[in-house]
Design a protein that fits this description.
It is built from twelve helices and two strands, in the order H-H-H-H-H-H-H-H-H-E-E-H-H-H. The chain is mainly α and 293 residues long. It has a two-stranded antiparallel sheet with strand order 1-2. It starts with a helix and ends with a helix. The relative contact order is 0.17.
Length: 293
């Protein structure tokens, strides 16, 4: 079942970000993702040989779903984090291009926030600075800035997907630009408050940060609320498409977390598969909901 234009007005889209403005946002996101991809392509040639040296100085193993399931039966692989990081950057660029292509004329308020979630995966390219500092004498300040940028991208992505679900649920909200600014401000405050040890990193080549357990709990809570919001939308809007969108949100969360914590060859492909499947569910169902508007 589709959604009427009047329902979009009630959900706060009309008089908000115009279709042209939304498309400008998407173009800017594609540009940012392309810059990360170029950085990845240029830097990989001389950074990849530095991974073994960086692996020798890891202070602990990253904690993730795969590691919790298989325990220590699979040892970390030196290049698996690079594969997961490269996959995240490539996924972000490809997905943003497809989102722009398929939604260029489709007025979906949720897709802008989902695109911001997709863009956040590009920030995984910041992990390249860990092996890079084995080749170049990078000041600790730059490593700190890169780590905070990585954290900003991760938190911003979670909040953006949550915002998409709240819009879908029909909650009255202010202009989308204001919501994006609020999300960015909250994320910035959190990011600046997290302690970071720039002298040590885990097997995913992320700097060691504080409050890890607390943030995992918050992330799990955000996932549950996001899924529930989409399921509520299926009931309140009378559109079963939102059920599959809720399933898609779980899959993109799962794929994202698998890629973020990848340190074995078992992880990157399932992570990318879950991300791709979740993106397919979310985008195709949203496109169907707003197709006739």
């Amino acid at each position: 079942m589709g959604i009427s234009l009047e329902e979009i007005r009630c959900s706060g889209y009309a008089g908000n970000v115009t279709l042209s403005d939304r498309n400008t946002f998407l173009k800017a996101e594609i540009l940012i993702a392309a810059l990360f991809f170029i950085f990845l392509a240029v830097a990989s040639a001389f950074i990849i040989p530095a991974y073994p040296a960086a692996a020798e100085e890891t202070s602990r193993r990253v904690s993730g779903l795969i590691q919790n399931v298989i325990g220590r039966s699979l040892e970390p692989n030196v290049y698996a984090p690079f594969a997961s990081m490269a996959g995240a950057v490539i996924y972000a660029l490809a997905a943003l291009i497809l989102i722009y292509y398929f939604f260029e004329q489709t007025p979906s308020p949720e897709i802008l926030f989902f695109a911001l979630f997709v863009l956040s995966l590009s920030f995984e390219g910041m992990r390249l600075l860990v092996p890079l500092q084995k080749i170049r004498q990078i000041p600790a300040l730059y490593l700190l800035m890169a780590s905070r940028a990585l954290l900003f991208g991760r938190f911003f992505g979670i909040f953006s997907l949550f915002a998409a679900s709240v819009y879908a649920a029909g909650l009255e909200m202010q202009k989308q630009q204001n919501i994006i600014m609020i999300i960015a401000l909250i994320t910035l405050v959190i990011t600046l408050g997290v302690p970071i040890d720039v002298l040590s990193w885990d097997t995913s080549y992320c700097m060691i940060t504080g409050y890890t357990s607390m943030f995992r709990m918050v992330e799990a809570g955000m996932l549950l609320i996001t899924m529930l919001s989409f399921f509520i939308s299926a009931y309140s809007r009378g559109s079963r498409e939102y059920i599959l969108i809720g399933v898609g949100s779980f899959l993109v969360f799962l794929g994202r977390n698998l890629l973020l914590s990848a340190d074995t060859w078992v992880t990157p492909l399932p992570g990318l598969a879950a991300l791709t499947a979740g993106t397919y569910f979310i985008c195709t169902r949203l496109h169907k909901v707003y197709l006739w508007l």
